[in-house]
Amino acid sequence: MLQQLIEQCQLGNGFAQRRLYDQYANRLFRIGLRYVRHDADAEEVLMNAFLKIFRSLHGFVYRDDKALEAWMKRVVTNEALQFLRAKQVLPLLTEVDPDDPPVTQTDLPDAHLDAEQIYDLIRQLPPGYRTVFNLYAIDGYSHREIAEQLCISENTSKSQLSKARALLQSWLTTNGYEHESRRTS
Amino acid sequence: MNTNPDERLDQRIRQVLDQLPDAPPPGSTFDAGRLWEQLRPELAAAPVVQPKRPAPVWWAVAAACMGLLLAGVWLYNAQTNQPTRVEAVHLPAPKPPDGPRPQVAQTPESNKPETVAQYRRQPERTQPGNNRIATRPVSEVGKAETPVSQSVEVPVFPASTPGGHVAQLTVPPSLTPLVAQRTSASAAVPAKRRFRVVHENELLTEEETYRIRNAGGGRADRFVRLGSGNGISAASDEGPTMLQLPLQRKQPQ
C-alpha cells in the first residue's frame, strides 16, 4: 500500500503526494516542534522537510514502512538542526557552565507518565539541552554524531545531556512524579 | 540488559513519546491543510527530479567508438598476418660471363612482355646440379594443387652467388626467364651451402683442368683462392688474373 504510494510520488503524482503528506504531517510536525519549540518555526521546518522529501524521493529505495518513516524523521531532524544553526541557537552551547548546579544521578520515575506532559517538559528545556537530549535520548544519535552535527566536542554533548536529564528529573519531581525509590521505600 | 539509570530514563521517555497521538499537540495552531496549500505551489514550481537517463545520442556515440575500435583491431590483425612479399625488380644487366652460357630453355610464354611478379618470401631452394632457384608464386598460396604455377629460372654462377637466403630476387633483363612447370620435388629440396672447403691441391687440380679446357683464354672467375699462391705463380702469369689473398699469421706479442 505505502510502497505503491511512494512509487506514485516518485512519478510526481500530486494526489499521492497529498496522501503521503496527510499520513505523516502531524507526526513529523511533532518532531520538529520538539527541536524548535514554536509552532511557526516547526511549520517552516516541516515545509522545508517535505520539499526535500518529495524532491529526493526518486532516490529512495523502499524497503518497509519503518525505513520510510525513519528516513522522513531524519530529514525533519536535519532541517530542524539547520534551522537552529541559522537562528544561531546552537553556538550557545558551552562545555562548562560554572553557574549550573552539579548533576546528580536520579532514579527512574514511576510508570504512570503522561506523554503530553513529558513532551511539553522536553520542549521547555533550554535549546542546547533540548537539542542534545532529543538527538541522543529520543532520536538515537551517538555523542559522536551529535558532536559532528552541532560542531561541538563529544564532552560538550555528554555534559549537555547530563544536565538535560537532571533538569528534566527535577521538573518531573516538581510536577508530582515520584521516584521509584521513594515510592517503594 | 542495561542497568544505567540514565539509559533507563531515556528508554522510558521514548516509550512514553511513542504513545503520543498522531495529531498536533494540544493548544497548537498547526493546520496541515493550510501548510499543504503553501507547499503545493512549491512542489509544482520544482518538479520531481527524475533520475538522469543516458540520452540516445550517447549510446550512438558509444556504439560508433566501439565500432571504430573493433575496425582498428581488425585492420591491425590483418596487416600483422599479411605475408612478406618479395618483388622482382629489374636491375641493369651485368656483364655476361665469357664462359659457356648455361642453357636456358624457352617456352612460348616467354615471348610475352615481362611483368613484375610478386612472390611470397620462401627459403631459397636450389637444385644441386643445375643452379636453379625455385620460387613459389603468390597465386599458389593456399592452393598447392594449382598446376599453372610458374617459376623463374635464373642462371646462378657459383662464384658470385652469396650464401644464405636471397632477400631480393634479381632478374636480369638480358636473360629470358624460363617459365616452366614447377615440380613438387624442387620445392622439397632444402637449401644447401654453396661453398665448401677444399684443400689447396684439389683447388689447383680443378684450376688446371679448367685452364686446359678453356685454352682459348677465359677468365677463371669461378675460383677464389685463399692463401699464398707461390706454387702457381708461374702459371698465373699466363692465365687470367686471379685473386690472391695471402694469409699472414699475426706474430704473437
Automatic annotation (TrEMBL), chain A:
Residues 116-168 form the RNA polymerase sigma factor 70 region 4 type domain. Pfam families: Sigma70_r2, Sigma70_r4_2. GO terms for biological process: DNA-templated transcription initiation. SUPFAM superfamilies: Sigma2 domain of RNA polymerase sigma factors (SSF88946), Sigma3 and sigma4 domains of RNA polymerase sigma factors (SSF88659). Residues 20-88 form the RNA polymerase sigma-70 region domain. CDD domains: Sigma70_r4 (cd06171). Keywords: Sigma factor, Transcription, Transcription regulation. GO terms for molecular function: DNA binding; sigma factor activity. It comes from the Bacteria. PANTHER family: RNA POLYMERASE ECF-TYPE SIGMA FACTO, RNA POLYMERASE SIGMA-70 FACTOR ECF SUBFAMILY. Belongs to the sigma-70 factor family. ECF subfamily. This is Sigma-70 family RNA polymerase sigma factor. It comes from Rudanella paleaurantiibacter.
UniProtKB/TrEMBL annotation, chain B:
Residues 89-147, 228-253 are annotated as: Disordered. Keywords: Membrane, Transmembrane, Transmembrane helix. The chain crosses the membrane at residues 57-76. This is Uncharacterized protein.
